[in-house]
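Hey, I'm writing a tutorial for new members on how sequence and structure tokens pair up, and I'd like a real worked example in the thread rather than a made-up one. If someone can provide the structure for the chain below, I'll link this post from the tutorial.
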Amino acid sequence: MIYNPQMAEGWQGKLNLVYAVRLRRIGGDRLNSTQLIYNHHQAPLKVQRPFYPEGEEVCHSVILHTAGGVVGGDRLSSNIHLQPHSQALITTAAASKIYRSNGLQARQTLDIQVDDGACLEWLPQETILFNGAIYRQDVRVELATGGSFLGWEITRFGRSARGEKFLQGEWRSHTEIWQQGVPLWIDRQWLPGNEETFHSPHGLAGKPVVGSLVWVGSPVSEEIIQKARSLLTQQSLAGVSRLQNGFLCRYRGDSTSEVRDWFTSVWQMLRVSFGNRGHCIPRVWQV
């Protein structure tokens, strides 16, 4: 066997993306187009070539993790900057897998800057934590006045199809959204892997899937709150709350597809209400 020091020490992946509005000539017209003007990556992170399924204004990007999964000791960091009036939708090519730890913590940090008039839709596919995984994720969003952000996080604890439960390990998720030095939303979650937490009503209540969707950018009416609640048809544990200039959806249940369908319906509703955009599902989700 050939010794690979990268595997022994863990991956130190990095991704830096900058989006900006540029004039682009298409046929005889000059159109405003959101372009990925800077792209620097370090394995195992990589971004596919941008594409435009709904026109030039919104740039769609897909992030790849070429190693196939995250192990203890991995350190992944991403910086995403949307310059004024740019619009981007970013997702991932597949579900993220966090493997059983070798005793070290795996960590991912995401720093996002959304400038005036810009809008980021951050829609990664779900994260699957194997039993015994030790994982922490930190997301910080700096939102300019007039900017907007929609992001979600869907996590499955244990490979439920195999009967696996998350009874060992640890999960931490810290998300912060700031605007001009003022915190708009700070969310810190911690879940230790053990039998008591898995079954506790204050933990997972025996449900292996949790999710959070947050929208910040415009005040939300009571009508939109009620509609978001009505879009969840199953009897899962879920809720919708109003935030300052936004709102929050929470889910705890058995089905990844159920929460993703709900979040997708809410996201599409928000696109129509605040972005004057139509429905557009990333093609990588349909593969």
